[in-house]
Amino acid sequence: MHLTDFIHMIERIAPVCGAAEWDNSGVQVASRCTEIHSVAVALDPSEANIEKAVSQGADFFLAHHPLAFKPQPLSGNDSYFRSVSQLITNDICLYSAHTSLDANPAGPVGWLAESLKLQNCKTLEPTAASMQHRIIAPSAASGSIPAVIAGSIRCRHIQGIGYEFEFDTEDIVYETAADHIRQVLPAGTSLLKAEERAGRRELGLGISGSLPCRLSWHEFVQLLEKSVERTFWTTCGPVPETVETVAYCTGSGSSLAETAFARGADVFITGDVKYHTALDTTGCIIDVGHFSLEEEMMRRFAALLAAGAPDLDITFLPSQDPIRLHPVHG
Fold this sequence. Notes:
Helices cover 28% and strands 28% of the residues. By secondary structure, the protein is of the alpha/beta class. The protein folds into 3 domains: 3-98 and 294-316, 3-Layer(aba) Sandwich (Udp-n-acetylmuramoylalanyl-d-glutamate--2,6- Diaminopimelate Ligase, Chain: A, domain 1); 108-126 and 202-290, NIF3 (NGG1p interacting factor 3)-like (Udp-n-acetylmuramoylalanyl-d-glutamate--2,6- Diaminopimelate Ligase, Chain: A, domain 1, 3-Layer(aba) Sandwich); 130-200, no CATH class.
């Protein structure tokens, strides 16, 4: 697959326009290759994971976390230098889908909402929205047209009408999409711009939704235990007697806790809760760990990409939670 087509596929699921302003989503280290065959996917672009990617012959590395949030000098033989050196030496492109992935509630970040069967889900902190467009080629064009063009334009044949092409404005502008479409159709095929879809796709951080039915605190804890693979959690704030509205944010999302509670959340699930956040919270926060929420998200992201690009060898590199529980015997 062409490198840019795969990046378009990533950004269809993790649109860069939805990323937070402070973030560094996108290409971290470029490569000279234009065609890719093997992709490594991991939560972190750690030195150990990059070595694994090299050993499996990957020419593309997709990580959730950026290699760095701001440019750093390659001034010492540290882990950062060795990681960049490995990537450049082995001609591996490193791409980070960070808050761009977090901001698409319909993507892999929605795995916990799916697992808990949350309904009427909404984002807690909107970052962007897009409008869907359609282009119709009304003639019955001959030949086979790909189901996806340029990584983000979806195509389907409608009997008796022709071909319908659909795309979102955060992925590609209309004029560019039309140019790509003309390249796969017979010369002279006319294009009709259909009306924009009424529904907008909202992008944003954090998800809030309702359980199918109200549960007791104990019942909810048992449900969450089945979804989140971790042997311990921490909680802070008042424990509710019952739970119906659940909100969560993957990674370090405790800054959204009060927003969640203001919107009626009974509990807020996240990782990396700090002392003063725990001290001041007005609702119940469950810290299940930064790693547990995002490791599963990236595992599902890898599977989603593999399903959409069967000709690529896409491998998920599992990691271990760097935070461990140490029992103290007094």
